[in-house]
Predict the structure.
Amino acid sequence: MSLSVQAPLPGRVLALADVPDPVFAGQMVGSGVAIEPARDRGALDVLAPISGKILKLHPHAFVILGSAGGGVLVHLGIDTVKLKGEGFTLLAAEGDEVDAGDPVVRFDPTEIDGTGYSAICPIVVMDSTPDSVSTDTVGSDVSTGDALFDWTAP
């Protein structure tokens, strides 16, 4: 099984080790990368990074289970669960079947900046082994829908 994961939002790609959260930085949820969102575009539509079913949907995070298996978590900001949904607009529903590129959530990273929380967005393959995704894009700027990383089950 393998997944080709697209960038769900525009910004600069960071290594998970640079995420200010020990759970993501330590790859305890899974391997992946993070995106420091672009701040020059106002509110951003965060898109499905793979095709599949929305398994979990919270205002600040969602998980999509791919048709071949393998789930991808997109987490919008760090500790943003404490905002209780404020500043996030759901554009899809839990249980929806989505194609890569379909809008799931809208948020404005500059509003998150104003709360004192980090707007960095980890994108990880759930329960994958540490360092199991390609990190060729780290340090580069991506646009929504660009290839972000590939993951193949060991």
Summary: DSSP finds two helices and 13 strands in the chain. Residues 7-131 form a domain with the Glucose Permease (Domain IIA) fold (CATH 2.70.70.10). The mean pLDDT is 95.
